[in-house]
Amino acid sequence: YLRLVCNEFLNATTIYMNRIREQFLLHRIRSKRDAKAYAEIYDVYVQRIYRFIYLKVPSKQDAEELTSETFTGAWTYFCTEAVHSAGALLYRIARYRIADFYRSRPVGEATLDEEHVQKLDDGRDVAQGAIEAEEMGRVREALKRLHLEYAQVITMRYLDELDIQEIAEALGKTANNVRVTLHRAMAALKTELQISEQQDREP
To answer: Would you list the DSSP string of the chain?
Structure first.
């Protein structure tokens, strides 16, 4: 129990210090157009934003282009606005870029490929708390079968480690709505994992 408490304290401390650092970097960008500060924020978030977009668009190339556009757009906001959370802003911009992407295409042109959750290998099992590496294939397949919104909130909360308020800001929802969606998503993932396990046991 003491180890658990210590781990929770260390995690909370790390999150707090990261947020302090982020606010310092955002101040540097806004006041001095500090490219190095921007590069540090980019390094923190680029894989997260790429993964968020990649779950929603047809190909890696599309995801890479939209990720680049997201960070280009974020620079203007960082330079002119008092930003509370870089992550929340980046996810919000990414959502707009994705919406523009589909508005510019004929209906039915864009379809999701089979690789959209391959980047989750370093994640953890949200249904059980943690999983061994050899189970990630099953989790990836289970996430593919979930409603896209469920896969999205699971990724943001447990892989990208955003808190509820940051997810709410990024998705344009209330914190309570995110909690409800996340609860349902975890239940759905657990069900899919159980079904997969049963199927594997069948002769």
So the answer is: -HHHHHHHHHHHHHHHHHHHHHHHHHHHHHHH--HHHHHHHHHHHHHHHHHHHHTTSS-HHHHHHHHHHHHHHHHHHHHHS--S-HHHHHHHHHHHHHHHHHHTS-TT-----TTTTGGGGG---TTTS---GGGHHHHHHHHHHS-HHHHHHHIIIIIS---HHHHHHHHT--HHHHHHHHHHHHHHHHHHHHHHHHHHH--
Better pLDDT: 168 or 159? 168
User: How confident is the model at residue 97, as a pLDDT?
Assistant: 92
pLDDT at residue 141 greater than cutoff 50? yes
